[in-house]
Amino acid sequence: MKLNSDRKIIHVDMDAFYASVEQMDNPELKGKPLAVGGGGKRGVVSAASYEARKFGVRSAMPGFTARKLCPDLLFVRPRFDRYQEISKQIRKIFFEFTDLVEPLSLDEAYLDVTVNKKGNPSASLIAQEIRQRIFDEVGLTASAGISINKFIAKVASDYNKPNGQKTVNPEEVLEFLENLDVKKFYGVGKVTQAKMYQMGIYTGKDLKAKSEEFLVEHFGKSGGHYYRIVRGIHLSEVKPNRERKSLAAERTFSENISSEIYMLERLENIAEELQKRLQRSKVAGRTVTLKIKYSDFTLQTRSKTLPYYVSDAAILLETAKELLYQEKMRDSVRLLGISLSNLNTSSGQKKKEKELKEFEVIQLKFDF
Which segments constitute the UmuC domain (predicted)? Predict the structure, then answer.
């Protein structure tokens, strides 16, 4: 498998997106340590401004921990409708350069500009122009990574944050990856990082020295992935029509709850929120999953697949209630969530058609 150096991929990543939107909309928050999320005892940081990050505040961190690290930290509630509005403005700019845009979330996307609408042969200049357009028209800064594939572009976009960009040219790819700390490899989490460190694998060069058999033995299927990416091989294309596989809504409670009556009240609100999200996305699904996080932080999920597509809050709630009563609760609960998967997207429809055909075959066998 050879290194493909023909493609020109850009990964654009907005800088502290949620927090930056809040600071843009409220000038009094500019230059101050800010967290988007809940600052209460059970609140969680969704995003942190760069002023807050200097104190060690990070996303997914409990609010009380963030306050300990940064006593002057300001909390604001997230406004997802506003973030979606801004995200649409940014994507509109992307599409002026290429139709091959693969959004990963509201604040980041891959762009394949190998052949682009501007006829510009320089992906680096395109990234620079996109970032300038975002700043001029939206008022926010973005960072970008530019290289021959999605993996390297993603890693590079984090290199000169905030408000910067990094280009890894084809002839620089192997050296760039060899000098990279393995914790910088996209997809290597803290557990894998610790395991690699224990094995003496600290850099891409150390990783490259290991055989594919060794990596597969110690990291399973991911081992083959690590073997390829450290050699600059990542064949995944920019997919402009990424299908959503599930939609969910969940709530973390300020106090643990053990009463099923209270749980049902919370589930009703969660089901209504999920219905809104489904309606906005114009999708329905068949598999309802109830997510339960207990007070000791253990997580449990219970699922049921329905014979028809649903998006109605009442049906979601009834199914969630059935799953809630499926077995006895082990402890008090700190979080509840409902998700809907097996959606009626094109792949979901194909899966449904396959199931129906299999059912017809079984019926024919019985009829015979």
Answer: 9-189
Q: Do 76 and 89 reside in the same domain of the chain?
A: no
Query: Which pair of tokens denotes residue 325?
Result: 């009563």
Where in the sequence is the domain holding 264, given as residue range(s)? 246-350
Asked if 94 and 219 sit in the same domain, the reply is yes
Instruction: Report the distance separating Cα 11 and Cα 238, nearest Å.
Output: 10
273 is catalytic: no
Binding residues for Mg(2+): 13, 107
Task: Spot the catalytic one: 22, 51, 102, 108.
Answer: 108
User: How many angstroms separate the CA atoms of 243 and 202, rounded?
Assistant: 35
Numbered residues of the known binding site: 13, 107
Beta carbons within 8 Å of 36's beta carbon, 6+ residues apart: 18, 19, 22, 45, 46, 47, 48, 75, 76, 77, 78
Contact 118, 97 (CB under 8 A): yes
CATH number at residue 56: 3.40.1170.60
Residues 62 and 178 in one domain: no
Structure tokens that stand for 115 in this block: 């052949």
The 8-class DSSP code of residue 263 comes to H
| Integer CA distances (angstroms), 172 to 53, 62, 238, 349, in order | 31, 40, 22, 44
- The total domain count for the chain is 3
Q: Which two tokens stand for residue 147?
A: 């290289």
- Domain end marker among 82, 105, 123: 82
CATH number for the domain harbouring residue 108: 3.30.70.270
What tens-digit pLDDT sequence spans the chain (368 residues)? 566 678 999 999 999 999 999 999 999 999 999 999 876 666 788 899 999 999 999 988 888 899 999 999 999 998 988 998 999 999 999 999 999 999 988 999 999 999 999 999 999 999 999 999 999 999 999 999 999 999 999 999 999 999 999 999 999 999 999 999 999 998 888 889 999 999 999 999 999 999 999 999 999 988 999 999 999 999 889 988 766 788 999 988 878 898 888 888 899 999 999 999 898 888 899 999 999 998 888 889 999 999 889 999 999 999 999 999 888 888 899 999 999 999 987 554 544 444 444 444 444 344 43
Does this model's pTM top 0.85? My answer is no
